[in-house]
């Protein structure tokens, strides 16, 4: 991700949507010492952890923490870049998912960079069942009983919108970005980068 964002200005403003415990902010703050960050995260517990992490590692003065969703973030100067890691997959309605990416695009400068990742796969493909089982074992780092695998598989079917890669890419590009470029895959996790279109969606 650092390689994706390295062309941004030395004093870039970065938007992190679904910032969680602030791991990606920590990673980027160490590599780009003049960047500033706005972290958007609905969980107050996660925000507390992220704030503590920033204070412990000396970059809290470069961070603004917003407890809530992107739509409630006060308006401000547009951002040079944005990151959203493993967030949009929890929006089960494709229209809401497109709106999510459009809201990010609206906060970016024309040509601003987005790096995003989500679980993605063709769940109707013959290989998916085996891939999912391997993925679940990877996530738990232990052998799972068939019952536990079934429980986790049901949770994925119920709580996560795992869509084919081309479908996710189409959702992103329809929200005001150029064609996403996949730069990473590990199991079901896929990551892309793209730029906000110069004229919007």
3D architecture notes:
The chain has seven helices and seven strands; from the N terminus they run H-E-H-E-H-E-E-H-E-H-H-H-E-E. It is of the alpha/beta class and 201 residues long.
Low-confidence stretches: none
- The level of helicity is 25-40%
Order of helices and strands: HEHEHEEHEHHHEE
- Major sheet attributes: 7 strands, mixed
Rounded mean pLDDT score: 93
Shape: globular
| Number of DSSP-assigned strands | 7
Structural class call reads: alpha/beta
- Distance from N terminus to C terminus (CA atoms, Å) equals 24 Å
Q: Radius of gyration over alpha carbons?
A: 17 Å
- If helices are DSSP runs of H or I spanning 4 or more residues, what is the number of helices? 7
Strand portion? 15-25%
Strand order of the largest sheet: 3-2-1-4-5-7-6
Strand and helix layout:
Layout: H1 2-5, E1 13-17, H2 23-31, E2 36-41, H3 44-57, E3 63-67, E4 79-85, H4 94-107, E5 108-119, H5 128-140, H6 146-159, H7 165-173, E6 181-186, E7 189-195
Parallel strand pairs: 1-2, 1-4, 2-3, 4-5
Antiparallel strand pairs: 5-7, 6-7
Q: What is this entry, summarized?
A:
This protein is an alpha/beta fold.
């Amino acid at each position: 991700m650092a390689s994706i964002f390295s062309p941004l200005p030395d004093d870039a403003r970065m938007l992190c949507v679904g910032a969680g415990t602030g791991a990606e902010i920590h990673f980027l703050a160490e590599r780009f010492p003049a960047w500033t960050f706005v972290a958007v995260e609905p969980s107050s517990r996660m925000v507390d952890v992220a704030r503590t992490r920033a204070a412990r590692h000396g970059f809290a003065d470069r961070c603004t923490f917003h407890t809530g969703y992107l739509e409630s973030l006060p308006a401000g100067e547009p951002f040079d870049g944005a990151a959203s890691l493993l967030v949009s997959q929890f929006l089960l309605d494709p229209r809401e998912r497109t709106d999510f990416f459009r809201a990010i695009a609206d906060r970016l400068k024309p040509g601003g960079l987005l790096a995003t990742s989500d679980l993605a796969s063709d769940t109707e493909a013959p290989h998916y069942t085996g891939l999912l089982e391997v993925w679940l074992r990877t996530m738990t780092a232990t052998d799972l009983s068939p019952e536990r695998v079934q429980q986790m598989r049901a949770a994925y079917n119920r709580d996560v919108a795992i869509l084919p890669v081309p479908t996710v890419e189409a959702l992103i590009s329809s929200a005001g970005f150029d064609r996403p470029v996949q730069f990473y895959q590990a199991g079901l996790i896929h990551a892309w980068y793209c730029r906000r279109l110069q004229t919007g969606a």
